[in-house]
Specification:
939 residues; alpha+beta; Rossmann fold; Immunoglobulin-like; 61 strands; 17% helix
């Protein structure tokens, strides 16, 4: 019997516990429904219009491509060379008579060298990979040639060059060659480390080059070469031999400052011929080939002979007549102006050159006065009748002869045009040289167009005046000046479209006025045509912006990639449109737009060179005038948002690039890429930035933000007298930034991904190393709260933000809602006297007992939280409104949410559930007890 008792008691306890837990689970299930905060809240929609401006309407950018059947010459610029193609422009121009120059900006591959005759490597400061060395060796051993240059020890690593040339018996020293007695006595190069090379080794290669007969002396700045036994003698046909050597007191200086006299064993230049037909010329200097130094002493003749030798040219073929100089007294012409042109041709060879001629290139707006060209040469001076398109033949040039050609040009077309004035040099019917000068023409008058008032504020008036000023800048009277507006944009009307000025004396100016009316917000480009009877004609363009507020300009007129244009940044554009009209600018920047009274923010996503080539380091990104306008706008109090990219698709150092714009303020964009091996999504370059700087602006921009998705480069910020920089998004502990060669430039918190700057005390600049962060194609959705903060800061908005949490969309009757209200100052000023209040539909029970709380003051980036406990006893849909106000805010911030109170479906209320549970327990207990008693009686 005792056993049976011990069995029934646990069953009773278990039933009680199960019933109790069941009741608890059923009660809790109604309060744990998913939170659906603001499911039907009112969302701010865009309220301003989107505009487009094509300025100028025509695309005047012209790109020229040339091709020929000349030898292909590869110029390497992919190994950290200081001596870029720009710095070697004179050298490149000189040797271009031998072939087509192709610049290589990355690693050298076999494909790069296919079809090439010569590879030129100026002083390399980055190492060649084993694959590159193998490709170069294969190129050399199959008939290709190499022209390789070094420099003195501070900027030279011999092992880089030795990896290429030691195989063939030429090695490089880490020294500086000097001479205390025989050095260049030029005003700019007067020092022992500019020794003169005047001793030439007499060997088969030097004689083959023609050095002994044609070169007296050149100057030098660089390192010493040595001749050693080739590591693979089977590849060498002849040499290696020294070419230029030191005299008896030439010495070398090592990096530690010690020197050594080599007693005539200094080697400035060396060369070797290979079995497969390839040739190597090694120069201890790159310095003397840079800038205009190639013109000094006999450097130019030496260059032609040595480069010509690598291309298998004889000295007679290498030394040819050249255009020594080409000049014009005037480059900008108005109708009737004249200018004098002078061309000097020099035969560099110490031998006669037959059948030499020139062709003059005259733009259509200029003509040769009286069709007369004057030629001066050794045989005398004479005139030639110039016939457009016909060559001027000099016949045979004597050894070292100089021929001078001069003539006068006159502007005969009064239009704004650009062109080239040039001369082409021919030898035996083949063009061997060309030189051009940019020239332009203009009408005999100057024109200025402007609107007043500008911009047109439609809240005040729908009328503005277009002023067209015409000034005579010629020395004669111009007559019958017609001013005409041929095309009127839609939504715009003029009181007249034509006007006439009868005449203008020299220096006189007059202004005609047109009344313009519009009621539509927009940006319009107005073309004004001015035509005269005897002074030419012109087209001037004026930009009219009609709006009710300042606008935001989004620049996509600088070859931006499609993912970074308004097409793929639509979410960002929509966000901007909540604050102001947005103008999509296609083309160059019109000066009237970049005025803080007109434009609230100028947005510049990563611009590209017109070629779009990752290796293009020379094509201008923006014009000098555009750079000036952006800087002037910033310094006048404007706000600019600039977005960069990682190195493959970023051109910060191109002319008119980002560094030219911001370098003035101590802000430098790194041509690199940011990585994080710990905090990333999918790839280490898709960084999840979780670390923010601690300063007043970073606090504003990152208010309410926990992380930012980022892919791009980093910046270097140095405060200046005109700019103060505030890092905003910085690297996590594991983040780092590399350059395009993989060198790590910064780590951790030193990686500045996004920087805010104050320019001249009033302008604002937000520099983001990532354009991906703003693009709908990439990370905009994740970053929208941060981007909203950015726009708020750039616009200088006072903003109080409300976040509501803890309110389910649906709740059971009688249950409490714990509503958390977070108010954050996301603006740029301290908000004073903040109050937070709620209102609600009838039937809501407010257990707090008050609808209003006083928060006090919040500084930018600070927040406060308030909790209300609410409930309702009847089913229905209830609206809850939260208002947050501040004494220095013009209007309160409001948010509304909807909550539905419902009867439980198929569920017992909590009180009933407990009663049912108790009944179940009693039934089970008494049932078990009755069964026990019955069995007990039987027993």
């Amino acid at each position: 019997m005792s056993v049976k008792r011990s069995w029934i008691i646990p069953i009773i306890v278990t039933v009680i516990l199960v019933s109790s837990n069941l009741a608890t689970m059923m009660v809790n299930s109604s309060t744990n429904s998913p939170s659906e905060i603001e499911k039907v809240s009112i969302k701010s929609m865009k309220k301003y219009p989107l505009m487009y401006l094509y300025y100028p309407p025509e695309n005047n950018r012209v790109h020229l491509a040339q091709s020929s059947e000349q030898p292909k010459i590869i110029l390497d610029a992919g190994h950290d060379q200081y001596y870029t193609p720009d710095r070697l422009s004179e050298f490149v121009s000189l040797i271009s008579i031998f072939g087509d120059i192709v610049v290589n900006y990355d690693q050298i591959t076999s494909e790069d060298l296919t079809g090439a005759s010569l590879l030129i490597i100026p002083n390399p400061e980055g190492e060649f990979t084993p694959d590159e060395v193998s490709a170069i060796h294969a190129f050399l051993e199959n008939g290709g040639s190499l022209y390789i240059m070094g420099t003195w020890h501070d900027y030279f690593d011999p092992q880089i060059a030795n990896a290429i040339t030691e195989k063939y018996g030429i090695v490089w020293d880490d020294v500086s060659v000097q001479d205390n007695t025989t050095y260049f006595t030029h005003p700019d190069y007067n020092a022992p480390y500019y020794p003169l090379v005047h001793v030439w080794a007499n060997n088969s290669i030097t004689r083959e080059m023609g050095i002994l007969e044609n070169v007296k002396e050149i100057f030098f700045s660089g390192t010493n070469l040595r001749i050693v036994t080739p590591t693979d003698p089977s590849k060498v046909l002849e040499g290696p031999y020294p070419i230029g050597v030191g005299d008896d007191d030439t010495f070398v200086v090592f990096e530690n400052g010690t020197s050594k006299l080599l007693d005539g064993d200094v080697i400035f230049f060396a060369a070797v011929k290979l079995v497969g037909g390839g040739k190597i010329f090694a120069s201890g200097t790159t310095y003397v080939f840079a800038y205009d130094r190639v013109r000094l002493l006999d450097n130019r003749i030496f260059t032609l002979l040595t480069v010509g030798w690598t291309l298998n040219l004889t000295p007679e073929d290498s030394l040819i007549p050249l255009i020594e100089s080409f000049s014009v007294s005037k480059e900008n012409y108005i109708l009737g102006d004249t200018g004098t042109v002078s061309v000097k041709i020099k035969n560099l060879a110490n031998a006669s050159k037959e059948n030499v001629s020139i062709n003059l290139l005259i733009p259509y707006f200029l003509e040769v006065v009286d069709s007369k060209v004057t030629v001066s040469r050794e045989s005398g001076t004479y005139d030639i009748t110039y016939v457009p398109g016909e060559m001027i033949n000099f016949g045979t040039l004597a050894p070292l002869e100089i021929v001078t050609v001069s003539f006068t040009v006159k502007c005969v077309l009064g239009l704004k045009r650009d062109g080239f004035l040039g001369v082409q040099l021919y030898l035996k019917g083949s063009k061997i040289g060309e030189s051009t000068i940019s020239v332009s023409s203009s009408p005999a008058f100057d024109t200025a167009v402007s609107f007043d008032p500008f911009p047109l504020n439609l809240t005040l008036t729908n009328k503005t005046l277009l002023y067209v000023r015409v000034k005579n800048i010629a020395t004669y009277t111009i007559r019958s000046i017609e001013v005409r507006i041929p095309e009127v944009p839609p939504d715009v009307s003029f009181n007249a479209t034509e006007a006439l000025i009868s005449s203008l004396a020299p220096g006189e100016e007059k202004t005609v006025t047109f009344e313009v009316t519009t009621t539509s917000i927009g940006a319009y480009s107005i073309a004004v045509y001015i035509k005269t009877e005897n002074g030419g004609e012109d087209v001037a363009r004026a930009v009219l912006v009609a709006t009710t507020t300042r606008i935001i300009v989004f620049d996509e007129g600088h070859y931006q990639f499609v993912y970074f244009t308004s097409q793929w940044m639509g979410d960002f554009i929509d966000l901007l449109l909540r604050h102001a009209p947005v103008l999509i600018l296609k083309g160059t920047i019109p000066a009237p737009l970049l005025d803080p009274s007109v434009t609230a923010i100028y947005v510049l996503p990563i611009p590209q060179p017109s070629t779009g080539s990752p290796g293009d380091t020379t094509t201008p990104i923006m014009s000098d005038e555009e750079v000036r306008l952006i800087q002037q706008y910033l310094e006048s109090g404007g706000s600019v948002l600039m977005m960069g990219n990682w190195y493959q698709y970023f051109w910060p150092d191109n002319p008119g690039g980002f560094n030219e714009i911001t370098g003035k303020y101590g802000l430098k964009w790194i041509d690199g890429d940011v990585y994080d091996p710990v905090n990333y999504i999918d790839a280490t370059y898709h960084v999840v930035a979780k670390t923010f700087a601690k300063n007043e602006i970073a606090k504003i921009l990152t208010a309410g933000i926990s992380q930012i998705e980022f892919a791009g480069t980093a910046l270097i910020a140095t405060n200046t007298s005109i700019a103060t920089h505030y890092p905003v998004v910085i690297g996590n502990n594991e983040s780092y930034v590399t350059d395009d060669q993989g060198n790590i430039l910064a780590r951790g918190k030193d990686v500045l991904m996004i920087v805010a700057s104050i320019i001249a005390g009033k302008g604002k600049l937000l520099a983001s190393g990532s354009v991906y962060a703003f693009s709908s194609r990439y990370y905009y959705k994740s970053n929208e709260p941060f981007i909203a903060n950015v726009i708020t800061w750039l616009l200088g908005i006072k903003q109080l933000d409300i976040e509501i949490s803890g309110v389910p969309y649906q709740v059971n009757i009688g249950e409490d809602i714990v509503m958390r209200v977070k108010v954050t100052n996301k603006g740029v000023e301290t908000l004073v006297g903040i109050q937070v209040a709620i209102d609600y539909s009838p039937g809501i029970i407010n257990r707090n007992g008050t609808k209003t709380y006083s928060v006090g003051d919040l500084e930018p980036g600070e927040y406060a939280e308030i909790v209300w406990i609410l409930s309702a006893n009847a089913a229905g849909t209830y609206r809850i409104t939260v208002n947050a106000s501040a004494s220095n805010l013009p209007s309160p911030t409001t948010k509304e949410i909807i909550v539905n109170y419902v009867k439980p479906r198929g569920k017992i209320p909590a009180s009933g559930l407990i009663a049912v549970s108790v009944i179940i327990v009693l039934v089970v207990v008494f049932g078990a007890l009755a069964l026990y008693i019955r069995r007990f009686k039987k027993s």
